[in-house]
Amino acid sequence: MELKKGLEDVAIKETSITFIDGELGRLYYRGYSVYDLASFSNFEEVAYLIWYGKLPTRKELEDFRKLMAEERKVPDHISSFVRQVSRNANPMDVLRTAVSMMGLEDSRDGDTIQKAIKITSKMPTIVAQIQRTRRGQDLVEPDPNLSHAENFLFMLHGEKPSSTDVRSMDVSLTLHVDHEMNASTFACLVVASTLSDIYSSVVAGISALKGPLHGGANSEALKQFLEIGSPDNVEKYVLSRLSSGQRLMGFGHRVYKTMDPRAKILREYAKQLSTEKGLGELFEIAQRVEEIGIKILGNRGIYPNVDFYSGLVFYALGFDPDVFPTIFASARVVGWTAHVDEYLKDNKLIRPKAIYVGDLGRRYVPIDER
Ligand code: CMC
Asked: Which residues constitute the catalytic centre (predicted)?
């Protein structure tokens, strides 16, 4: 039996949701290039596309938006829980537990996508509650008249965001919606394949996304830029980090061997937002890290990934670094649930093998003789 460490290059299902061309650095949702979707579409339309496989008509989109907006409120006891623990707890732990609590209220049966819509609509409300609690601020109720991205920022700041902020948030969410068989999506499928429920799958997804090799990399990348402090320190920092065996966070990918297209798009939003919000030097630092990182690692196919610039976008929009992975989760929940739905149409229990390398036939030694 062949051992495939990290399941590298192992396919576990067929999909018509997302295609990644890792050599050319291209990404397609349901056959549409993310460049087009980031330029012309929006989060709700892309979520509809991912879940239902086609772009909605105007009427379908209107109804879908309304449905999502109506689902934004979170039950009071979940908000109280978020208030109680968010000052000190890791935001991903709070989000994971809040989604788990949501599962207590919903029946096990029913349509996966209908449940997915509920979860996706509520996650930004929980994230905004986490962020505001960390700052000692009161909670802001969702506004059903605003788009998903605009409402997210409204609940964060308690005031209507600028159109640049809304666009940046919308594009960031759109770019995080799905990414084929990443670790968190796989975790969701492992749970779903046992015929567990969708809330349990999403909890598994959040748990896997939390790690710094996956969705936790966005906050780590931003913390790097803050630690560097000035563009003049970049070269020394990168060299010393790499020579001490540490990884450059926001660099490298299992599938992309060139620049991640999402990083290219987010770089432009990071640039615009940082200039507007007096964070120009932080953007300069990031750009310099990109340049030097590519010079050193590019020949091994290690380039900036989505997390490299997304952190800067989220920071400029007013989120704390530790909260960034919860924004990632709020978008990726669309892909998680779409893959679960697709997988369950032809379910097979996920149960791989391990190659045993231990001893056999050992004599049991009574405890007094050991
Ligand atoms: N900095 C320095 N070296 C790196 C990096 C990096 N960011 N990424 C990979 N390498 C090296 C690694 O040290 C190894 O070298 P060697 O062969 O000499 O031991 C080689 O490249 C292969 O690395 P690997 O970990 O075996 O490859 P992988 O496909 O399992 O890694 C990765 C993918 C994302 C875990 C890795 O690139 C990494 O740790 N990156 C930093 C964390 C990060 O930015 N994660 C976000 C991933 S993309 C979006 C997401 O999923 O959230």
From this structure: 253, 307
Alpha carbon 121 to its chain centroid, in Å, reads 15
Residue 349 placed within a domain: no
Query: Does a structural domain hold residue 151?
Result: yes
Global confidence as pTM: 0.97
The two structure tokens encoding residue 40 = 């012309």
Kindly state whether residue 299 falls inside one of the protein's structural domains.
no
Nearest CA to ligand 1 atom 4: 247
What CATH number corresponds to the domain at position 89? Answer: 1.10.580.10
Q: What is the pLDDT of residue 262?
A: 98
- The pLDDT tens digits of the residues spanning 313-332 come to 999 999 999 999 999 999 99
Q: Which of 20, 213, 239, 300 has most ligand 1 atoms within 8 Å of its beta carbon, as the pocket-test mutant?
A: 213
Residue nearest to atom 30 of ligand 1 (CA): 254
pLDDT value, residue 110:
83
Amino acid letter at 203? V
Question: Is 335's C-beta closer than 6 angstroms to any atom of ligand 1?
Answer: no
This model of the complex carries an ipTM of: 0.98
Q: Tally the residues of the chain.
A: 370
Q: How many domains does the chain have?
A: 1
Active site residues: 253, 307
Alpha-carbon Rg for the chain in angstroms: 21
Per residue in 55-108, pLDDT tens? 999 999 999 999 999 999 999 999 999 999 999 999 999 999 999 999 998 877
The boundaries of the domain holding residue 64 are 15-180
287-308 per-position pLDDT tens digit: 999 999 999 999 999 999 999 9
pLDDT, mean of residues 325-344: 98
Distance 253 CA to ligand 1 centre (A): 6
Residue 78 lies in a domain: yes
